[in-house]
TrEMBL record:
Residues 34-61 are annotated as: Disordered. It comes from Actinacidiphila yanglinensis. Keywords: Signal. Residues 1-28 form the signal peptide. This is L,D-transpeptidase catalytic domain.
C-alpha cells in the first residue's frame, strides 16, 4: 500500500486551488469591460433634468480628473469647466480616499497613479493585467486620460 504524507496531499490541494483561481482570474480579465463612454460637448444639462453622468457639484475647479466612488464614473474637465469626456469604470479592490490628489506616477502609456491607500498605490489603467488597486477603464478612455493627466495633475475623488 502506498502512503501519501498529509503535507504532500495538502500541497496538491493547494496547487489545484491556486490553478483554479488563476484560471478564473484569466477568464475575468478577458471578459469585456462594461462601460459607457460618452464625449460631452460642454453644454449644461437643462434645469430640472438630472443626468446620471452630470459632473458632481463640489468637485473642484480648473483642469482635473473627477472620479466618483459611488457612480464608478470618471470626468475629464478642462480649464473652462467643460467636461471633455465622461465614462464608466470598473472599481478597484482598494479605493482611494475622497478629496483632491495629484498624479505622482505614470507608466506604460496607460497607467496614471494618484493616491495611496494603506501603502497600496491606486490609479487608472486600461491594462487588464494590472493589480486590483487599478481603476480599470477601456483602452480608448485610458489613452485620453493619459493625455489629459500629466504628472502633477489634479484628481478629485468624490463619494
Amino acid at each position: 500500500m502506498v502512503r501519501i504524507r498529509s503535507g504532500v496531499a495538502v500541497a496538491g490541494f493547494l496547487a489545484t486551488a491556486i490553478a483554479t483561481v488563476g484560471m478564473l482570474t484569466a477568464q475575468a480579465a478577458d471578459a469585456p469591460l462594461r462601460h459607457r463612454s460618452t464625449a460631452h460637448d460642454g453644454r449644461a444639462t437643462p434645469a430640472g433634468a438630472a443626468s446620471p453622468t452630470a459632473l458632481p457639484g463640489g468637485s473642484g475647479q480648473g483642469p482635473r480628473v473627477v472620479y466618483s466612488l459611488g457612480r464608478h464614473h470618471v470626468w475629464l474637465v478642462d480649464a473652462h469647466e467643460h467636461v471633455l469626456r465622461g465614462y464608466d469604470v470598473q472599481a478597484p479592490g482598494v479605493s482611494p480616499a475622497t478629496g483632491t490628489h495629484r498624479v505622482f506616477a505614470r507608466a506604460a502609456g496607460n497607467a496614471v497613479l494618484f493616491a495611496s491607500t494603506d501603502g497600496v498605490n491606486v490609479g487608472f489603467t486600461g491594462d487588464p493585467e494590472i493589480s486590483t488597486s487599478a481603476i480599470r477603464e477601456a483602452p480608448s478612455d485610458a489613452a485620453v486620460l493619459w493625455q489629459h493627466a500629466p504628472m502633477g495633475s489634479l484628481v478629485v475623488v468624490v463619494p
